[in-house]
Amino acid sequence: MINWNDVIKFANKGNLLPDRRVEKTEKEWKVILSPEQFRITRLKGTERAGSGALCHAHDAGKYSCICCDTLLFDSSIKFESGTGWPSFTQPIKENAIKYKNDASFGRVRIEVMCNTCDGHLGHVFPDGPEPSGLRYCINSEAIQLIKSEKAE
Predict the structure, then answer these.
(1) Is the pLDDT of residue 148 over 90?
(2) Which one of 2.170.150.20, 3.40.50.720, 1.10.10.10, 3.40.50.1370 gives the CATH number of domain 4-151?
(3) Which end of the chain is less enclosed by CB atoms within 10 A, N or C?
(4) 117 part of the active site
C-alpha cells in the first residue's frame, strides 16, 4: 500500500517504471480525445468542481486512463471526499501512477499522471481516509469507468 512518504519519495527521486509506454504526437492525441479531455490530460487542465460525470458514480468496476486505457483505480477504493472530484485512496498498481512536484498557482502539490502515457489526472493529498491516508483527486474527463462485467 502506497503512503504519503512513498508519494514524496517518487515525486522527488523518481517513479517506478510503467508496464508499457504509449507516446503520441499532439496531433494524434487531438484525434482520439475530445477537446475537454485534451485540455485536461495533455495541457494539465482541470474541470470545474462537481461538474464531472464520474463524481458521484458508484458502479462497481475499474477506472482506466482516457488516453491509453491503462487501469488506474478500482471502484472499491473510491470515496466521497466532498471536493467535487472523484477521489480514490490507492492506485490499482504501484506503478500505474506517476508523481511530480507541482508548484503552479503559488501552491505546492503533487501532480498525478498516468505512468503509461503521462496524461494529467489530477493531484494527490495526504488527507484521505485510513489506512493509506491518501486522497487521489482525479478529473472525471481523465478517466473512464469499465463496469465489472467488462473489467474482469
Answers:
(1) no
(2) 2.170.150.20
(3) C
(4) no
